[in-house]
Amino acid sequence: MDDVVIVREDDPRCSALEADGYRIVGRSWGAHLHFAESPDLTRLEQVVTKVRATGIAIQELDVSFANALFELELANNADYPFTPATHQPLPVMSEVEGLWLHGKRVFGAVDNGRLVGAVVGKVNDGVGDNDFASVLADYRGSGVGAAIAAASIIAFANDGVRTFTAGGAGANDASLGLVRSLGFTVDEQWCSYQR
């Protein structure tokens, strides 16, 4: 989008932009989760266990799942909310395969051999960050998204990560509810302005 300015909601420039004829064309948020040195992961483990009890496998995925992840992203791409600050481009197979080559970790939900949800994350400067999460429409609202997100946090926490970040589009209430349910605090709100 041409002439888009993205600023925090509490930035004094918001008033100036609005006075100059800019309007809000999108909202986004950022959230953080901090653990103590010896974190209690019981609540997160319960989220994973609840979904596993339905017969869905929650596991870290290796590159052999690249094609399944590509298909999942292709199926879900139109459902991602679009804002100037948050959007998910159409998947490209070589980029999906490259996730593992670039140090990303992929966690998924597998139901009867079919990948029905995935979370992709990484650690940057000691902070765990969620790149994206994707759940097939038929499985949304069932706890699958929370379970794979929880599994990724548990894995990173077991590797010593104590701080996590997440973010998303303001229009995606489900994503916002999910991160809050996992203990994240939403501490950044962003506005995308366009003249």
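The above is record 1. Record 2 follows with the same two-line structure.
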Amino acid sequence: MGLFGREGKGAPFDWLVVGLGNPGEKYANTRHNVGEDALRLLAERRGVTLKGGRDNALLAETRFPGADGADERTALAFPITFMNESGRAVGALVRRFRIESPEQIIVIQDELDLPPGTLKIKAGGGLAGHNGLRSITQHLKTQDYLRVRIGVGKPDSAHVGKVHVLAKIPKRQRELLDTTIADAADAVEMIIADGVDAAMQRYNSRS
């Protein structure tokens, strides 16, 4: 049957929101960790704290307003594997929270193919060379999860791509990215409240 729809204890959660990045102070505030930044902002807005535990992730359980005012049970997770092994944590969390469909997983990620300050929402599709997404896809055996993509821009030369995403962000661009990170948190809330199509219509129409 795969990961989705397995029997387990307790009621299934409605959403799993994953912010991608690398663990540790060395990587904090780098381009590769903008997904973590957006996830931490969501946790702050809900008044919950991400805590360590099993499944290689920092985790908080909360509820978000959903359609028709219903509360949506949501797990917020930051994998503390390195980026390339993100799928190990996500696969375990899908089982733990009994997520029934990949469309109930929202991954917040950095995106080299988008200019800094750009936000796009994507449902399924290709991985654009992102190692975190590649790992998640390998473990879930599907690409049909949702992505909130935060543009960090391309480096000047392809061979410095890794250096680019792991570098500290210059102050002017940091301010731009902080605005986009807040937009990403808004987008996650809108996906849960109004559906991915409504969120895509709002955010993907921006330049």
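The chain is about 35% helix and 20% strand.
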